[in-house]
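Good morning C.,

I know you're traveling, so I'll keep this short. The sequence:
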Amino acid sequence: MKIRIFLLLFFITSYSFSQSVNDYKAVIIPLKFEFLKSDNQYRLATISKFELGKAGFQAYYDNEPILDQNIQRCELLNFDVINQKAFLTTKLYIIFKDCYGKIIFQSETGVSKEKDYELAYKEALSKAFVSVYALNYKYIGENKVSSVPSIEAEVVTESQAVVATNVRSDELVVQEKTNLNLLYAQPTATGFQLVDSTPSVVVVLYKTSIKECYIAVKGNKQGVLIAKGSEWFFEYYQNEKLISEKIEVKF
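The tokens, ready to paste straight into the viewer:
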């Protein structure tokens, strides 16, 4: 019951936060991050633009003209790197904000123990970008405005039959979706990353106060991974319907 209550509160409070980066056409990068003293110090802005390009984003510096004249201001994400103060280590994480300043995505924290600032910042930033790559960004052509979803769920069978139904707050309707690829859990500073046999990062997990429940990011979907007996399920909202997807995981 505690897990179900936690899930309900999590989905209601974080649904607007989980607005997908895929809804945005391009990313704006500041030449100077707040924790640095000068423009493009240690070439962090240059590195950020390069990494964003590799991740599939159109990226522009904040003083650079945007080639696509049809892009509206609120179709752009604002990129930033945050320096998390720590003793004897460098910790950086990446955030994307919309035009209203709302955080759309926050990466895992990249950590470096290098003593040289330039080496430390570059290593920590590179590690933070692992979460950005895991998003598998692809522009979907629309910018949706999120609101608190109605509590609905859908059941999807292997024959693709779909049934939608209203459920009470203490009920979950499960989407039985067979996953033939076993994922392997690799520990991170904040939880785990689930990788396939390639290996590629498929799901990023963040620890919660509940042992059998993790905040989970899979591609452009954000939800939770919870244990039900000996099985694990990734649960998230899609088109205002609660989906529960079985995931094969080896911890």
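Safe travels,
E.
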